[in-house]
Design goal:
Layout (H helix, E strand, L loop, with lengths): L6 H17 L37 E9 L2 E15 L2 E7 L2 H5 L5 H5 L2 E3 L4 E3 L7 E5 L4 E5 L18 E2 L4 E15 L4 E15 L2 E14 L7 E15 L4 E9 L9 E9 L15 E5 L3 E7 L2 E8 L2 E5 L9 E7 L5 E7 L12 E10 L11 E9 L4 E10 L2 E11 L5 E11 L7 E14 L4 E11 L6 H10 L6 E13 L4 E12 L5 E14 L2 E15 L2 E14 L2 E10 L2 E11 L5 E11 L5 E11 L3 E10 L3 E15 L2 E6 L7 E5 L7 E2 L3 E2 L5 E4 L8 E4 L9 E3 L4 E6 L4 E5 L2 E3 L1 E9 L10 E3 L5 E4 L5 E7 L4 E6 L2 E7 L10 E7 L4
Length: about 850
C-alpha cells in the first residue's frame, strides 16, 4: 500500500477494480455493457467507462509498451493497435512490424507461416497455434505467449541471435589506478603508482579501443630514483558478426590460438567466437591463484600487456574474472608491501579440442609482427586453424602458419569417450630459416585429457602433456631469436594438472594445480599449489571454517615456498579469525576481525607478529577496506611492520561512459567491456541494479555486463525514495554484443502525492473513470465519484490534462505550494480544441 493514501479512497478504488475484474475478465474478448446502478457514485450519468468495456481493450492507435515474451521482457517498442473484423465481430489487435517479429526469436519454419497484412507491415499469427497476445495499459506491457516449439534455442541465461543488440553510439574511458606510499626505517619514502585501462568509442556494430598502461616510482633522498613511463599497449577495432558466430578485428592485436603460441602483430583477424554460443557450449576460462604475504598488488600480463591489476588482502587469492578468450602463458607478479615480489607464470589450460557434430570452428589472421614500440618487425604472415565436428565422438582439427622464413603446420584429433572423459592429441611441425645460420626444423607433440567424475563429486579439469624437440621453434621464439635478441624459449616438456574434489559428507573441498616446464637450455620452472577448505560446527559454534593453502614456485632459478592456514568463526555481525603462514623460513601469525557492512563495504584488520629467518621477532598490523561505490570502486590498505616500514595504499577503479542519452561516472568492470546505461528522464537518486543510483541528470551505468547473455536491469523498488515511484515496468531484459553500450529508459514519477477534487467551469465534475496525465502523457491518477482523485508524482506549477471520451477535455495547473494533508480543489479549464 502506498504511503499516506486515504483509506476511504482505497476502498472506493478497490471496489471499482473488483467490479472490472468481475465484469471485464481477461478470459473474455466480448464487449461488456456495465450496469452502472451498482456503483457507489453520486452522479451515475457522468461516468466514462468505455476503456473498460472490453477485457484488454485498446483504442486503435500507437502505444509505447514493454514487449514481454513468455513473461520475459524484450524491449520497449511503439506498438500499433488496429481494428479488424474476425468472425463478423470487430476486435482491436496488436500489429507487430517485421522488425518487432524478429525480436521474438521464432524458428525459420514458424516465420514462413506468418502472413503479412497492411502491405507487409502487420504480422498475422493465426496460422501458428498457441500464440496469444494481450495488451495491458496498467503495466504498459504487451504480453505474448508463444509455444516453445515455435522458438529458437534459448535458456535462462541465453537469448537467440535475433534478440542481440549492438547498443547505442558512445564514448568510454575505463581506468584502474593503484598508488602506494611507504616509509622505511632508514627514513626514506618510497612512492609508486600504476594505471591501466581502455578508452574508445562505439559506432554501430564497431568498437574502437585503445588500451593504455603507465607507472611511476620514486624514492626520496636518492638521486635519479624517479622512473615513469606511459604507453598505449595497443590500438584496434572490432565488431561481432552474429550471422556466422564470429568476431572481426583490425589493428594491433595478439594471436589467440588453440594450437600455436601467442605473439603481437598488426593486421586483421576473423575468429569464430565461442562466447556467442550458449553458456553450456562455451569453453574454459583461465584462473590465477596464489598467496599474498601482505596486502599486495597483483598484476597479470601477457606479452607485456597488463590484463588485470588489483590490490588483494593478505592471504590466498583467486582471480576468476579473466576472459575465456585468453590462451597461452600468463605472467603474474605479486608486489608485497615490504617491497618483495613473487613472480610466476600460468599456462592457461587447453581442454581437449572438441567440436559439436557438424560444426566448424575457425581462426584466421594476417599481418606483420610488431614489437613493444608498435613497430612492425618481421615477415608478413598468414595463420589459420580449423576444427570440424565429424560425429558425436570425433573431432578433427588442424592449422598452419605461413610466412617467408617461418612455417608451421599442426594436425590433431579429439575423442569423446563418454564415461571415460574426453581426449585429444596433436602434432605440430615447424621450420625456421635464419640467414647465415643453421635452419631449425622440429616437432612438438601434445596430449590433453579432461573428465568429470559426478559419482564421486570430482573433476579432473585438465591434464596435459607436451613434448618439443630441441630444434622446435614457435613463431614467438623465432621472432625473439631473429629480431629482438630476447630468446628465452627452447621448451622441452610441459606437464599440467588441475583437479578438484568435493567430500560432501565431510564438508571438505580440495583443489590441486601443478605445472612443470622443462627446457633444453635452462633450468625448469615449476608451480605447485594445493588448497583444502573444511566447514564444521563445534558445539554451539556454527559455520566455522578452516582453510589450508600451500604453494611452491620455481621461476627463472628463484624458489618461493608459501603455506597459509586460517580459521574463521562467525561472531555477531562479523567474523573473527586466526591465520598463520610460513614463507621462505619466516613465520607469521595474525588475529583478525572482518565484517561486511550494510552497504556491502568490507573491512578487515589484522594484528600479530613474525619470527624466524634470522630477523628476530617483530610485531605487525594491517588493515584493508573496500568500497563498491556508485562512481568508482575504492580499496584502501594499511601495513605496519616493527622496525621495518609503514605503508598506505589506495586503489581506484571505474570509468566514464557518454552517449546521446546522457553521461555518467561508474564503478569498475571489464576494461573497455560491455555496459548498460539506464535513464530515468532526469530523476536523480533512483536505485538501479545491485547498488547503483542515477546521478543528478537521471543517468546510471551498470558495468561488467556479460557478452551475449540474457541481462536483467531493474529499478529496486524497495529502495525508492518516498517521493519517487515506478510508472511502468521496473525491469528490462536484453542481450548485448561484445563491447556494446546498451541503453534502457525507465518511466518513474518524482513528486508529491495529493488528494484533489476536479471541478469544471459549469460546476460539474469530470466523469468517473477519466484519467489525469502529465506533460509526458503518464497517467498520474483516475477520477472517482464527485471528481475525487488520488494523484502521484505531482510537482508545483505543473500542468495536467484530464482525458475522457478518447481525448483531452480539460486541464489544471498545480499550485506553487502543495499541501501535505488537505484536499486540493482544482478548477479544470477546457483544452483549446478539446
Amino acid at each position: 500500500m502506498e504511503k499516506n493514501r486515504p483509506p476511504v479512497f482505497y476502498l472506493r478504488r478497490l471496489g471499482v477494480y473488483i467490479f472490472f475484474a468481475i465484469f471485464g475478465s481477461p478470459s473474455s474478448l466480448m464487449a461488456v455493457e456495465f450496469n452502472l446502478d451498482i456503483l457507489d457514485a453520486e452522479d451515475r450519468e457522468n461516468i466514462d467507462l468505455s476503456r473498460f468495456s472490453q477485457a484488454g481493450y485498446f483504442m486503435p492507435g500507437t502505444y509505447t509498451l514493454n514487449m514481454r515474451l513468455n513473461e520475459h521482457g524484450i524491449s520497449d517498442q511503439d506498438v500499433s493497435f488496429v481494428e479488424r473484423i474476425r468472425d463478423g465481430k470487430a476486435t482491436v489487435e496488436a500489429c507487430l512490424t517485421p522488425e518487432q517479429v524478429d525480436l521474438l526469436g521464432l524458428r525459420e519454419d514458424a516465420i514462413k507461416k506468418i502472413t503479412w497484412l497492411d502491405n507487409g507491415r502487420c504480422a498475422d499469427f493465426s496460422a501458428l497455434d498457441g500464440i496469444v497476445m494481450r495488451g495491458d495499459l496498467s503495466e504498459s506491457s504487451l504480453h505474448m505467449a508463444v509455444p516453445q516449439a515455435w522458438l529458437e534455442y534459448q535458456d535462462a541465461s541465453w537469448l537467440p541471435i535475433s534478440r542481440w543488440e549492438e547498443g547505442v553510439p558512445g564514448i568510454l574511458l575505463d581506468y584502474n589506478l593503484n598508488t602506494n606510499v611507504s616509509w622505511t626505517r632508514q627514513g626514506s619514502q618510497n612512492q609508486s603508482a600504476s594505471v591501466s585501462g581502455s578508452t574508445g568509442f562505439n559506432l554501430g556494430a564497431w568498437r574502437m579501443r585503445a588500451d593504455y598502461q603507465g607507472s611511476y616510482y620514486n624514492t626520496t633522498g636518492r638521486a635519479n630514483s624517479s622512473v615513469n613511463n606511459f604507453d598505449w599497449s595497443r590500438v584496434y577495432a572490432y565488431r561481432s558478426l552474429p550471422a556466422i558466430m564470429s568476431k572481426l578485428s583490425v589493428g594491433e592485436a595478439y594471436i589467440t590460438s588453440d594450437l600455436f603460441d601467442s605473439w603481437r602483430y598488426t593486421g586483421i583477424s576473423l575468429v569464430s567466437d565461442e562466447s556467442q554460443l550458449p553458456p553450456k557450449l562455451r569453453g574454459y576460462a583461465p584462473e590465477v591463484s596464489g598467496i599474498a604475504r601482505t596486502n599486495a598488488k597483483v598484476t597479470v600480463s601477457q606479452q607485456g600487456r597488463v590484463i588485470y591489476e588489483s590490490t588483494v588482502a593478505a592471504g590466498p587469492f583467486r582471480i576468476q574474472e579473466l576472459s575465456s578468450a585468453l590462451s597461452g602463458r600468463l605472467d603474474v607478479r605479486v608486489e608485497e608491501q615490504d617491497g618483495s615480489e613473487q613472480t610466476f607464470s600460468v599456462d592457461t589450460a587447453q581442454v581437449p579440442y572438441l567440436t559439436r557434430p557438424g560444426q566448424l570452428r575457425y581462426k584466421l589472421a594476417t599481418g606483420r609482427p610488431r614489437d613493444y614500440n608498435h613497430h612492425t618487425q618481421g615477415p608478413y604472415f598468414m595463420t589459420g586453424e580449423l576444427s570440424w565436428g565429424l560425429s558425436n565422438a570425433w573431432s578433427l582439427y588442424g592449422g598452419t602458419i605461413l610466412s617467408q622464413d617461418y612455417n608451421s603446420v599442426a594436425l590433431g584429433a579429439g575423442r569423446d569417450m563418454n564415461a571415460f572423459g574426453t581426449l585429444s592429441a596433436d602434432v605440430t611441425h615447424a621450420s625456421a630459416r635464419f640467414p647465415g645460420e643453421k635452419n631449425r626444423h622440429g616437432r612438438s607433440w601434445r596430449l590433453s585429457y579432461s573428465k568429470r567424475f559426478d559419482e564421486i563429486s570430482s573433476e579432473l579439469t585438465f591434464a596435459g602433456y607436451r613434448f618439443s624437440e630441441q630444434d622446435y621453434v614457435t613463431m614467438g621464439e623465432y621472432l625473439d631469436m631473429r629480431y629482438r635478441d630476447g630468446y628465452v624459449g627452447n621448451s622441452k616438456e610441459l606437464y599440467t594438472v588441475q583437479a578438484t574434489k568435493n567430500f560432501e559428507d565431510l564438508r571438505l573441498s580440495a583443489n590441486v594445480n601443478w605445472s612443470h616446464q622443462t627446457y633444453w637450455n635452462r633450468p625448469a620452472n615449476d608451480r605447485y599449489s594445493v588448497s583444502l577448505n573444511k566447514y564444521f560446527d563445534l558445539g554451539d559454534w556454527r559455520h566455522l571454517a578452516v582453510s589450508l593453502n600451500a604453494a611452491r614456485s620455481e621461476f627463472n632459478g628463484r624458489k618461493d615456498d608459501t603455506a597459509y592456514i586460517s580459521l574463521s568463526m562467525p561472531l555477531g555481525s562479523g567474523t573473527a579469525g586466526y591465520n598463520s603462514s610460513i614463507s621462505n623460513s619466516r613465520y607469521m601469525q595474525n588475529a583478525s576481525w572482518s565484517q561486511r557492512l550494510g552497504n556491502n563495504d568490507y573491512y578487515r584488520i589484522n594484528a600479530g607478529n613474525s619470527f624466524g629467518g634470522g630477523l628476530g621477532t617483530r610485531s605487525q598490523a594491517s588493515g584493508y577496506y573496500s568500497h563498491y561505490g556508485n562512481n568508482a570502486d575504492i580499496t584502501t590498505n594499511f601495513n605496519w611492520a616493527q622496525s621495518q616500514y609503514t605503508s598506505f595504499g589506495i586503489s581506484v577503479s571505474g570509468g566514464m561512459t557518454a552517449t546521446p542519452g546522457g553521461a555518467a561516472l561508474h564503478s569498475g568492470g571489464v576494461q573497455g567491456g560491455t555496459r548498460l546505461m539506464v535513464s530515468t528522464d532526469g530523476v536523480s537518486g533512483v536505485p538501479v541494479g545491485y547498488q547503483g543510483y542515477t546521478n543528478a541528470f537521471g543517468i546510471a551505468v551498470i558495468p561488467g555486463v556479460p557478452n551475449y547473455f540474457r541481462t536483467r536491469a531493474e529499478i529496486d523498488v524497495n529502495r525508492l525514495p518516498d517521493d519517487v515511484e515506478s510508472a511502468g515496468s521496473p525491469i528490462a531484459e536484453l542481450a548485448l554484443t561484445e563491447g556494446a553500450i546498451g541503453f534502457r529508459r525507465f518511466d518513474v514519477l518524482k513528486g508529491a502525492k495529493v488528494v484533489a477534487v476536479f471541478s469544471q467551469q459549469d460546476g460539474r465534475h469530470p466523469p468517473f473513470g477519466a484519467t489525469v496525465l502529465n506533460a509526458k502523457a503518464r497517467e498520474l491518477g483516475m477520477i472517482s465519484d464527485s471528481g475525487l482523485a488520488w494523484l502521484t508524482g505531482v510537482n508545483p506549477n505543473e500542468r495536467l490534462t484530464v482525458h475522457w471520451g478518447g481525448s483531452a477535455q480539460c486541464e489544471v495547473v498545480m499550485p506553487q505550494v502543495l499541501p501535505a494533508q488537505q484536499q486540493l480543489l482544482l478548477p479544470c479549464t477546457p483544452v483549446t480544441g478539446g
